[in-house]
Amino acid sequence: MAEPILPPWPDLWIAAGRASLPLSLRVKRWSGGRTFVAQLQDPRLPPSLFDLVIPPRHDGLTGPNVVPILGAPHRVTHDTLARGWADFAAALEPLPRPRVAVLIGGKSKAHDLSPARAQSMARQVAAAIEAGGGSLMLTFSRRTPAAAKAAFRAALGALPGQIWDGDGPNPYFGFLAFADHILVTEDSANMATEAAATGAPVQVLAMDGDSRKLAAFHGELARHGASRSFAGRLESWSYEPLAETERAARAVVEAMERR
Predict the structure, then answer these.
(1) How far, in Å, CA of 140 to CA of 163, rounded?
(2) Residue 31, domain extent
(3) E-strand spans in the chain?
(4) Within-domain flag for 134
(5) Over the stretch 179-201, which tens digit does the pLDDT of each residue have?
(6) What is the mean pLDDT of the chain?
């Protein structure tokens, strides 16, 4: 039999996702309201049940204790990028510029990456990198179909750079740190938000399928100035790196102080 959860209760409880909702509600009740409960994402419950709710802006949730953010909280910070730079400088710094990070997602409820779409996308990416005389830093998602991976390797394998195959240390933060351009598939708000935290221009790769919420997110990211649709060529511009995780953290601290 599992042991009961007993005090002392934490000052702050941060949770995300539907599976955490029963615990979030119980901790608030068990602590007699002493624990400040911050719930990430849209809980699909009245926000008043929590002390603070931090959903993606594209979910459309509002309320007096709701702080919507653009995209999703993530781990990309100045320090994370600095560590990525230091850890992978030997492999990535010699690559010819512009260095292009390519972040490939895959199958989800709303999107897919068919072999035909992957082949077309890979050919466009290869042509853009070759035209700029640059190099490739590509990583796949766990959701990337095997056929799509094969299409990218076939089209991009001859370019200078690296296609990470899952062996050895993950160079993801190194790719972001060294990127002059970032290309990211449209299926993941997380990947696009992380890319937009770097200050490098982000271009979005169209996939099979569509999503109203993700389309709204990408529209917001474009209005921030971080992203544009990929139309077969690399584009350069500047913008203020997205720092929504820091803004969310400040909102939690301020709400706790007010209470």
Answers:
(1) 8
(2) 12-70+246-258
(3) 12-16, 36-40, 52-54, 99-104, 111-112, 135-140, 161-164, 181-185, 202-205, 208-209, 227-229
(4) yes
(5) 999 999 999 999 999 999 999 99
(6) 95
